[in-house]
Design goal:
Layout lengths: L1 H45 L1 H12 L6 H12 L18 E5 L2 E5 L5 E3 L4 E9 L3 E8 L3 E6 L1 E3 L6 E2 L4 E5 L3 E8 L2 E3 L7
Antiparallel strand pairs: 1-2, 2-10, 3-9, 4-5, 4-8, 5-6, 6-10, 7-9, 10-11
Length: about 190
């Protein structure tokens, strides 16, 4: 009987401690949201330069989702870095490369399983002129990589680890293009 009362008291103490931690987390998140909202409202109301700067960075600049991933995982999902278990980790292999439009055309084997060159977030899935079925991944370094002529295995806004499976080539060709801050850049800097 004595052990049972002690056990119940100990569990009640753990439950109330967990509940207090949960309430503290929720309160912190709500307060941070309120503070950010107030700062934005005050900035818009009092300063026209702030409004112009906000419009420039929000509406005219690409938002790098990957910059927020680690913070989001740590504080909102409770995951620490490198908790993801990888099942498909490959390097990009090809037999030939040649210039194509704004990037490079790679010769691969038929139905080649295309790995991600670097970690990032899927920001586009669909058809692109001259590239066919395309997946665009915004990498952690801010470079958008176009993977063309593939059937994708990913969804919009999925976080893709380096070497993870993106999709399968439609034939023996895939197209890659690299874009940074809206300008296409040389593939040689990123394809090694």
């Amino acid at each position: 009987m004595v052990e049972s009362k002690f056990y119940k008291k100990k569990n009640q103490s753990n439950d109330s401690s967990n509940f207090k931690k949960y309430i503290k987390k929720i309160t912190t998140k709500v307060l941070l949201t309120i503070i950010v909202t107030l700062v934005l409202l005050i900035g818009f109301k009092t300063n026209t330069d702030f409004k112009a700067m906000f419009n420039k960075y929000v509406y005219n600049t690409s938002l790098p989702f990957v910059d927020f991933k680690e913070v989001y995982d740590k504080y909102f999902l409770g995951k620490e870095k490198n908790e993801v278990e990888e099942t498909f980790t490959e390097k990009l292999t090809y037999s030939d490369e040649s210039l194509y439009e704004d990037g490079v055309k790679l010769t691969v084997s038929n139905n080649y399983l295309v790995p991600a060159i670097d970690s990032g977030i899927v920001v586009f899935i669909g058809d692109k002129d001259k590239y066919g079925k395309t997946v665009i991944i915004q990498q952690m370094n801010g470079v958008d990589v176009f993977y063309g002529n593939i059937n994708s295995n990913v969804n919009m806004y999925d976080y893709i680890e380096k070497g993870s499976l993106i999709g399968e080539s439609l034939d023996n060709t895939i197209y890659l293009a690299f874009q940074k801050e809206g300008n296409f850049v040389s593939y040689k800097d990123y394809l090694k």
